[in-house]
UniProtKB/TrEMBL annotation:
The keyword Ribosomal protein does not apply. Residues 154-248 form the Acyl-CoA oxidase/dehydrogenase middle domain. This is Medium-chain specific acyl-CoA dehydrogenase, mitochondrial. Signal peptide: none annotated. Its cofactor is FAD. The keyword NAD does not apply. GO terms for biological process: fatty acid beta-oxidation using acyl-CoA dehydrogenase. Residues 65-149 form the Acyl-CoA dehydrogenase/oxidase N-terminal domain. Pfam families: Acyl-CoA_dh_1, Acyl-CoA_dh_M, Acyl-CoA_dh_N. GO terms for molecular function: acyl-CoA dehydrogenase activity; flavin adenine dinucleotide binding. Keywords: FAD, Flavoprotein, Oxidoreductase. Belongs to the acyl-CoA dehydrogenase family.
Amino acid sequence: MTGIPEDDVLADEFAVPEGVRPVVDRVLTFIEGEVLPYEEEHAEHVGGPLEYLDEDGRMTPEARALRDEIQERAGEAGIYALHMPEEVGGGGLSPLEHFYVQEAVFRHGTGFGSSLARAVMAWTEGPSPALLHLDEGQRGEWLDPLIDGTESACICITEPNAGSDVTAIETEAKKDGDEWVIDGHKRYITNAVYADTAQVLARTDRADGTEGMAMFLVDTENPGYEVGRMNENIMMDGITADVHLEDCRVGDDQMVGGIGDGLPLALSWVNWRRACRPGMCVGMGRYLLDRMLSYAKERETFGEPIGSNQAIQWPIADTATEIHAVRNMATTMLAEYEGMADLADLRQPEAARRRLSMLKYYPEDRLFDWSDRAIQVLGGYGLMRAGGVERVFRVARNLRIPAGTTEVQKRTIARTLGLE
């Protein structure tokens, strides 16, 4: 169920700039021509959690194979890594241009577990701007397979005792001859179950504090890498788990950048996710608005469509207005950000960090409101999986935690405004 009406009354108001329109059209054509028919063909593995999760809360092999297939097809079509520079095989889109692609993809719903549309576009499992700090010799082995969608990754930052405070990580990397030996425990790692490459943040024995942190690339076939218990979460994604690193040996050529670059590299990855939030939120917001409008016009009570009642009209009007506001805020701020910094930069100016924090927390909070309203408008049907909106509600609630909580974003905003 895409929820996209044939008579889109707001199409002109949510126009895509001419410069990026051909790319958005290519992505939508791919979704409509390749993904949706494939999804329908394999519907028994794609629907609700009972279809795509096994008894351990893990995505079934069949469901995962479907996602991998779409990801690889998107890679072959040249649309999977549109956010990465052309010189490394990506599409060369700026964060602002990529906003419109994400908006289009997520308008087809959440794409988490229940839909294959999200597999068209690199998310946390894909190549990030942080990996642009790999040297030429490393890129062929570690970056190229992520760009073309034939492999996937996970990033191992969070630990049982280190969440928002990344500086509190305990995972250690000790030098042993020409190798590094990594030992530690990571938690809430998205795609840990299926990743081919793990990007692991660790403390080294070469310096104190953040100056001693480094980012290592670990082949998940490494005997020192082990997926732990599943982290069954509100999104029911089936791919998040603990990671155990024990006597995990890697070479010097598996370090990204140098010692002391670990924390900035981790934050570079986080900043990429923050810059992607508004496109996701506006896209899902438009999906919710479509569902509300459709239901309000079709559902009747007491002989009239429920959309004739102000109690139904007002939450829809509020949502339409706020989607406009968030979309305009996002496109303005992303354009401003591009004049200040690049997502691959390991050091971000205060004004750039402030905008990234605003772009993360505010759209997420609004998406949560929109999804709550959508459930209320749809009533009992909104609580059902078939309604298509309860899933967005779960995703919206989740988004306010990863890549920096709402509270962390507000603290950053306050501090960059001089409030120490």
